[in-house]
Design goal:
This protein is mainly alpha-helical. The protein has helices at residues 21-24, 33-41, 79-103, 107-140.
Length: 157
């Protein structure tokens, strides 16, 4: 094996820049889907990865303080609670059914244990899931506004 056939590890300090970045003239090009959603989950701007998505617990910031992406145009609406309920149900329902079948605890014990646990799990999942949805909407450029339907002003790659 020669030295030229070994690929060098990517430099983490270099930002991801697609080949089409120079074509559209944008300083921050449309990021890949996985990267945009991962940044959103972490509460960072899906486009640049520097600014914050949220102004408070669930309120979107009007725009990114780093790159200026307008989050106020994005409409995640009720998608986040829907996916949170779907995830929490799939995570917590199997143990509930197993414990009910194996130990047959009284219904009051189920309510005392599982209702608060569902509330905590749903609350903890809500912000990251909403951030991921914002990342998805940023990647797709969907604003929900018929007058200005695209966040980037171009077509998705």
């Amino acid at each position: 094996m020669t030295d030229s056939s070994i690929a060098a590890a990517p430099d983490p300090s270099v930002r991801w820049v697609p080949p089409s970045a120079a074509a559209n003239g944008s300083q921050y090009p449309r990021p890949p889907l996985g990267l945009a959603m991962r940044r959103g989950i972490m509460g960072r701007c899906p486009v640049c990865g520097e600014g914050h998505v949220f102004q408070s617990f669930l309120k979107l910031a009007p725009k990114c303080e780093s790159c200026g992406t307008a989050f106020g145009k994005l409409r995640p609406d009720d998608a986040a609670p829907y996916f949170v309920i779907l995830l929490a149900g799939h995570i917590l329902m199997p143990p509930i059914f197993w414990i009910d079948r194996a130990y047959e605890p009284p219904i009051w014990l189920h309510m005392v244990v599982w209702l608060p646990l569902f509330a905590v799990v749903c609350t903890l999942l809500l912000r990251p899931v909403k951030g991921a949805i914002v990342g998805l909407l940023c990647r797709l450029g969907i604003t929900g506004n018929t007058d200005d339907p695209n966040l980037f002003g171009d077509k998705p790659e």
